[in-house]
Each structure stands twice: as structure tokens, then as C-alpha cells.
Write a structure and sequence with these properties.
The longest helix has 20 residues, at 317-336. The chain contains 12 helices and 9 strands. It is globular. It folds into 2 domains: 22-150 and 324-339, Rossmann fold (3-Layer(aba) Sandwich); 166-315, Aspartate/ornithine carbamoyltransferase (Rossmann fold, 3-Layer(aba) Sandwich). 42% of the residues lie in helices and 13% in strands. The chain is α/β, with parallel strands linked by helices and 365 residues long. The chain binds phosphoric acid mono(formamide)ester (CP).
């Protein structure tokens, strides 16, 4: 028997696309993502999920720690009938004993979809360039570097959460979303998506900590077509009229000197408190991609939100976290589809018989 030189998915390379960046999608495509999440979320509630990832493998490459992204991807793969492999830097040779491209090509010969979390967006692009299976960006962190960081899987969950908690009578494009804090990767992805959808987004950060100019330029260009707005400011009074406030942390991964500096810059002024929520509006909801510095952790002194806000009736942060699972189910469903080959009954019977015959010859009765 002549074996194929690679997996069935590799043979379908002409259909190959990757999920790297929210800006790669049109308004219609983003709305399709939201609808697919809604359908699969409802199906999960009814314990009636289609097995769209049946017998497939998801490779999960994490160069940094994760709670939500790991749990949601791994659970989504299982719920949809497939399997996920957790590949931390300690487990694989990525960029150490072998090049990133070689790892990418090997994983593509065995898995059906791969997700990667890496410091550099450029690394994720390199990984995707070498891959013959769909690659999902599970966060790149360098929003203030030369490249533009992204957290597009988070953004899908954010959009679904916003849609689910819209004030009565409002449509998605009417929503006013405010981000407060250090404008990093989730904010960049949200700026791309809201500007494609024609929404209003304000980013409130101290001078020098707002979105990089290249992200602002892309969002502004999108807004010219969609009718949306992006407001960049350091004035927290701009929260007035917000339907949603999303707080962003500002201390992780920094040197102690940098954290001390940021304590002064952010500490008093950019913390989301109940007073700020009241100022924003009586119905304003609180969002956070999590994990949050809201007290009760080693980052007690560097809060971006109070515990009172997190625990209040305005907080939708755990709905937002749960929606990561809907996002991952949508992603695995979508990225399996063009590669999906329905098995033929005759093929199943043929290969079962060949396997039985071979085993009987190896282990005669
Ligand atoms: N929001 C988010 O990406 O969380 P994790 O880092 O826990 O995956």
C-alpha cells in the first residue's frame, strides 16, 4: 500500500487560511463569526453540539502562561469531538533546537489546526508562513514594539459579550466601548473590530501609553468606510456615555523600576472604581479580558479596577471569559471545515479489513 506523504489536511493547502489579526476580516465576516459563536453557544447549552472537530487534533503552543486561552481551546476541541495537545516551551524545541519553521512543518504533518501564543507577532506570521494547516494567533504581546500585537481570539469573545449585554434598543454599531488603562494587545484587536463594525470606541490612557500610531491609523482608515469613531484621550471624564468600560492592566512583565513609575502615572487616575462607573452611566457594564488586578493577588498595590466593581451587578467579566469557549468552538469549527473529508463507509470497511488481516498475520491464532 502506498501511503500519502502527508496528512489529508496538507493535501487541501489551496483552501488554507489563518486567523492572525482582526483587521483581516470584513464587517460581514466579523458578523458571521459572532453568529457562529451564538449558534455553538446555544448548542452547548442544549448539549447538542455538532461534532465539527471529530477525530481532529489541535496543537497548542504556549510561549507564555494562560488560563482562559488554554482551558477554552482544550475544552472546545474535546466538546467538538477532537483532541488538543498542550505544547509549552519546556515540551518542544521551538526556536531552540530547531527553527520555528521546522516545528511548524512537523506539527502540520500531525495536527489539523494549531494555535500559538508568542511575544512577537512576526514570529506568529513566520510560523503561519511555514504551516500547511490553519494557524490561530492566541495572542502576540508586542503592541508597543515594532510589530503590532494582537489578541484576536479574545476580541471575538469581547464582541459576543458586548452583543449579549447591549442596552435595550441598541444595535452593535450603536455601542460606545471605552477602554481604560495601558492600551495593549486586546485594545488593538478591539480597535480593528469596532472600526470595521462602525462602532464608537474611546481609549483612555496616560500620554505615551495609548495605542501605537500604526493601530490608530488603521482604525481611522476603517472608520472612514464604516462610519465608526476612535477617540484617543488621556481624560477619564470621557467615560461619560459609555455602554461598556473595559479595564486594561498596566504592570505585568515590567521591571520593578517601571512598575514604580507606572504606579504614579496610572495608580490614582486610571483605576476603574464604582464612582467612575456611575459617572459613565447608570447602565454601563464593566468588562475585563482577565486576569485582573482587583485586589487579592500579589499585585494588590497595582490595581486597574476595584474588587467592588468586579463583584458588582455591572460586571460581565465572567460572561466574557465564558465566551472564550464560544470563540474557540467557532474557530475550530470554521478552520476544520474546508479540510473536512467525510469518510466513506466502504473506505472504513476496507481499512478495517486490511488492519484485521495484517494483525491476524502478525498474531496467528
Ligand atoms: N484573557 C486571556 O488571554 O487570558 P489568559 O492569559 O489566561 O489566556
Amino acid at each position: 500500500m502506498r501511503l500519502p506523504s502527508s496528512s489529508a489536511t496538507v493535501l487541501n493547502k489551496q483552501h488554507l487560511t489563518h486567523f492572525l489579526n482582526m483587521n483581516q476580516f470584513s464587517k460581514e465576516e466579523i458578523l458571521n463569526w459572532i453568529e457562529l459563536m451564538e449558534v455553538l453557544k446555544e448548542a452547548r447549552r442544549k448539549n447538542a453540539l455538532p461534532q465539527t472537530f471529530k477525530s481532529k487534533s489541535l496543537g497548542m503552543i504556549f510561549q507564555q502562561s494562560s488560563t482562559r486561552t488554554r482551558v477554552s481551546f482544550e475544552t472546545a476541541a474535546t466538546l467538538l469531538g477532537g483532541h488538543a495537545l498542550f505544547l509549552s516551551p519546556r515540551d518542544i524545541h521551538l526556536n531552540t533546537k530547531e527553527t520555528l519553521e521546522d516545528t511548524s512543518r512537523v506539527v502540520a504533518r500531525m495536527c489539523d489546526v494549531v494555535m500559538i501564543r508568542d511575544d512577537l507577532y512576526a514570529d506568529i506570521e513566520r510560523y503561519a508562513e511555514a504551516s500547511t494547516i490553519p494557524v490561530i494567533n492566541a495572542m502576540s504581546c508586542d503592541v508597543h514594539g515594532d510589530d503590532c500585537g494582537n489578541h484576536p481570539t479574545q476580541c471575538l469573545a469581547d464582541l459576543l459579550t458586548i452583543k449579549e449585554h447591549l442596552p435595550e434598543g441598541k444595535k452593535l454599531e450603536d455601542a460606545v466601548v471605552v477602554v481604560i488603562g495601558d492600551a495593549s494587545t486586546p485594545t488593538a484587536s478591539l480597535a480593528y473590530a469596532t472600526s470595521k463594525l462602525g462602532m464608537t470606541m474611546k481609549v483612555i490612557s496616560p500620554m505615551g501609553y495609548n495605542l501605537p500610531q500604526q493601530v490608530i491609523d488603521i482604525a481611522n482608515a476603517n472608520n472612514e468606510l464604516s462610519g465608526g469613531r476612535l477617540i484617543i484621550t488621556d481624560d477619564v471624564n470621557e467615560v461619560v456615555g459609555a455602554d461598556f468600560i473595559q479595564a486594561e492592566e498596566w504592570c505585568w512583565g515590567r521591571s520593578p523600576e517601571e512598575v514604580s513609575k507606572r504606579d504614579v502615572i496610572f495608580g490614582e487616575n486610571y483605576v476603574t472604581t464604582m464612582e467612575l462607573m456611575e459617572k459613565a452611566g447608570p447602565e454601563t457594564k464593566f468588562m475585563h479580558v482577565l486576569p485582573a488586578n482587583a485586589g487579592g493577588t500579589q499585585w494588590e498595590e497595582h490595581k486597574e479596577v476595584t474588587r467592588e466593581v468586579m463583584e458588582s451587578g455591572r460586571s460581565v467579566v465572567f460572561d466574557e471569559a465564558e465566551n472564550r469557549l464560544s470563540a474557540m468552538m467557532a474557530l475550530l469549527t470554521y478552520y476544520s471545515h474546508p479540510h473536512h473529508i467525510e469518510p466513506k463507509q466502504e473506505d472504513i470497511e476496507f481499512f478495517q479489513a486490511r488492519t484485521d488481516k495484517l494483525l491476524n498475520s502478525i498474531f496467528p491464532k
